[in-house]
Amino acid sequence: MPRFFFHVHTAQGITRDEKGQILPDVDAARVEAMRAIEDLPGRTAAVAARESILIEIADEAGQTVLNVPLPAGAETPSDDGIEDENDLA
């Protein structure tokens, strides 16, 4: 199975995924990216409300196979406005 890397682009720069995940195909990688967006913790979700975020999915050769955007102001499916205890630190 191929390995996919999920690089996160924000206004502050790029956070590169150096480890990646082994997944069956690009469709599974897209699902994983959407799950990551849904699981944004409270503070990160607040940043997403102000800034656009893009998850770039790359293959093992470093080629971009898919971009998953989250435009500024878009609500994440799990955004309930409640911060968890990790957000208070």
Overview in brief:
The chain has 89 residues and is of the alpha+beta class. 25% of the residues lie in helices and 29% in strands. It has one domain (3-73).
Helix content: 10-25%
Question: Major β-sheet, in short?
Answer: 5 strands, antiparallel
N-to-C series of helices and strands: EEEHHEE
Question: Which word captures the global form?
Answer: globular
Structural class: alpha+beta
How much of the sequence is in beta strands?
A: 25-35%
Total number of helical segments?
2
In the predicted model, the low-confidence regions spanning at least 5 consecutive residues are: 77-89
What is the average of the pLDDT values? 78
Terminal CA distance reads 38 Å
Rg for CA atoms: 13 Å
Number of E-type strands: 5
Number of self-contained structural domains: 1
Keywords:
29% strand, 5-stranded antiparallel beta sheet, alpha+beta, 89 residues
Task: Give your account of this protein's structure.
Strands 1, 2, 3, 4 and 5 form a five-stranded antiparallel β-sheet that branches. The protein has one domain (3-73). Strand 4 (53-58) and strand 5 (64-70) form a beta hairpin. It contains two helices and five strands. The radius of gyration is 13 Å and the shape is globular. It has helices at residues 26-38, 42-50, and strands at residues 3-10, 13-15, 21-22, 53-58, 64-70. The termini are far apart. By secondary structure, the protein is of the alpha+beta class.
Helix and strand arrangement:
Elements: E1 3-10, E2 13-15, E3 21-22, H1 26-38, H2 42-50, E4 53-58, E5 64-70
Antiparallel strand pairs: 1-2, 1-3, 1-4, 4-5
